[in-house]
Amino acid sequence: MSLSIVILAAGKGTRMNSALPKVLQPLGEQALLHHVIDTAKQLDPTRICVVIGHGAEAVQSRTSADVEWVMQQEQRGTGHAVQQALPAIPDDDRVLILYGDVPLTRLETLAELLSEDQGVGLLTVELDNPTGYGRIVRESGEVVAIVEEKDANDAQKAITETNTGIMSGRCGDLKQLLDNVGCNNAQGEYYLTDIVGLARSAGMPIHTAQPGAEWEVLGVNNRDQLESLERLMQINRVQALLDAGVTVKDRNRLDIRGAVTAGRDVVLDVGVVLEGQITLEDGVVIGPYCVVRNSHIKAGTVLQPHCVVEDAVVGESCKVGPFSRLRPGAALAGHNNVGNFVEIKNSSIGHGSKVNHLSYVGDAELGERVNVGAGTITANYDGANKHRTVLGDDVSTGSNSVLVAPITVGAGTTVGAGSTVSKDIEAGALAYTRAPLKTRSDWESPKKKAKKG
Ligand code: UD1
Ligand code: CA
Q1: Tell me: the pLDDT tens digits for 24-58?
Q2: What pLDDT shows up at residue 183?
Q3: Residues of 356-368 as b/e, b for ≥16 C-beta within 10 angstroms?
Q4: Residue numbers in the chain where pLDDT is lower than 50
Q5: Mean pLDDT of the chain
Q6: Does the C-beta of 193 come closer than 6 Å to ligand 1?
Q7: Which of 126, 137, 151, 282 qualifies as a FRET site for 343, CA 20 to 30 Å off?
Q8: DSSP string, 221-251
């Protein structure tokens, strides 16, 4: 039987108090809805239908996944929402209903729910405090109905088995059941949950499954819940890294927003933020308060505190930081030192080369064993275009040199301190500019004036 997935995402999310539609709020670096779509995709459905209403345009334009959009103009209840999606789905398909604001449901849990394919399937959860949720009413162990909090009597309110909202059923059955759902209830809405009582009356089997953990079915209605889920997800991701052999200094002071692949004996210190696709090879140490995005850091390299590394490749056994910035296109070959207040952009740094203090290296190609002196600047921008700087092997630049690109400095050349180098230099030379040093012996240093009165 083919599977179609319907994701409800039409609600406004008033309690987020945000200009952004609720399902676009980020968890990690991905919108809530995109987490749900990712999980849905892994079930390999023939289609994913997303029911949208509030903020529909924003939701559509910010979702690149291949889904079918269904408009629900007026939010008249969860039953009404599902009804908008069903006409596009063949009667014989299995339908799984998910929610754009319930982002962390595990694949195994959904597979468990779908493993039984007769009648209606419900994902239910036991909650210590079931307030606000629909209650699962059973008779002799069999589910007979779901009662919403607002429609429940005291005995029903005492039930702790609750409805997560996640359901499954044959499309044809759901269509028929939903056709018979009315809105004569406390909220005047078409409740999806009413199909359960109707299915029971029609003699259809109703089966239930439960998630492995409560957080799998938690939804986001306000920023408080969003923060709680962010932490939960972070803790889960950290746990996976710990299991893989990574040392984490404090699981509560580390954020993994993207996908991290880590080798053995990697150390992640406090305050580290990892975003996008990150590869950390064996023995990499990321010091306190580093932010690393879309980068590959090779074996044995150490990032000292407060580095920012983005779209960069850092070779083996490098020492970077503290306070270094590697910008997109920075490629360190290996055994490099990059020190404080150094910015490297779109540049390849050869094996063993060092840029230790206060430098800007942009659009450059450095050979091996180059030593870039403190305060060296590649002047790569003429106000209109960017130009390249090429430094051969074993070049050494003195402190405060300016290399005016485009420029090539041959291997083994030394650039004297304070020089502005504006033409190519051949290999093995000494290149320097010197304004003559002047001294005056008749000079007196200024004195403070005596204060009046
Ligand atoms: C729903 C369930 C309740 C369950 C709870 C779990 C119903 C009637 N009740 O209640 O049994 O315990 O979820 O969280 O189903 N939506 C639409 N269009 C609509 C209405 C809702 O797309 O017309 C979407 C909302 O954006 C939201 C989801 O459906 O993401 C759930 O709707 P909501 O109104 O929050 O239902 P609850 O009252 O929480
Ligand atoms: Ca809700």
Answers
A1: 999 999 999 999 999 999 999 999 999 999 999 99
A2: 95
A3: bbbbbbbbbbbbb
A4: none
A5: 97
A6: yes
A7: 282
A8: SSHHHHHHHHHHHHHHHHHHHHHTT-EES-T
CA–CA distance from 135 to each of 128, 189, 368 (Å)? 13, 17, 69
Does ligand 1 lie within 6 Å of residue 215's CB atom? no
State pLDDT tens for residues 207-221. 999 999 999 999 999
> What does the alpha-carbon distance between residue 176 and residue 334 come to, in Å, rounded to a whole number?
66
Query: What share of the chain in percent tops pLDDT 70?
Result: 100
Amino acid at 163: N
Q: Which atom of ligand 1 is nearest to the CA of 76?
A: 23
The answer, yes or no, to whether the previous bond of 406 is cis (omega within 30 of 0) is yes
The answer for 311, left when phi > 0, alpha when psi is -120 to 50, beta otherwise, is left
DSSP assignment letter at 406? S
Helix or strand (DSSP H, E) at 389 = strand 389-391
Residue 241 confidence (pLDDT): 96
Is 357 marked active-site? Answer: yes
pTM of the entire predicted model: 0.89
Q: How far, rounded to the nearest angstrom, does the alpha carbon of residue 46 sit from its chain's CA centroid?
A: 27
pLDDT tens per residue across span 408-442: 999 999 999 999 999 999 999 999 999 999 999 99
C-alpha 101 – ligand 2 centre gap (Å) = 8
- E strands of 11-77, at which residues? 26-27, 30-31, 47-52, 68-71
Domains defined along the chain, listed by start: 3-217 (3.90.550.10), 223-431 (2.160.10.10)
Phi then psi for residue 174, to 5 deg, are: -60, -40
What DSSP string describes 95-154? EEEEETT-----HHHHHHHHT--SSEEEEEEE-SS-TTSPEEEEETTEEEEEE-GGG--H
> Alpha carbon of 159 to those of 145, 176, 207, 362: distances in Å?
12, 29, 18, 65
Q: What is the dihedral of CA 67, 178, 78, 133, to 10 degrees?
A: -130
> What pLDDT sits at residue 13?
86
**Helix/strand/coil (H, E, C) string of 287-299?**
CCCCEEECCEECC
* pLDDT value of residue 451: 86
Looking at all shown ligands, the one closest to residue 13's CA atom is 1
Confidence at residue 154, expressed as pLDDT on a 0 to 100 scale = 97
pLDDT of residue 375: 98
- Separation of CA 229 and ligand 2 centre (Å): 15
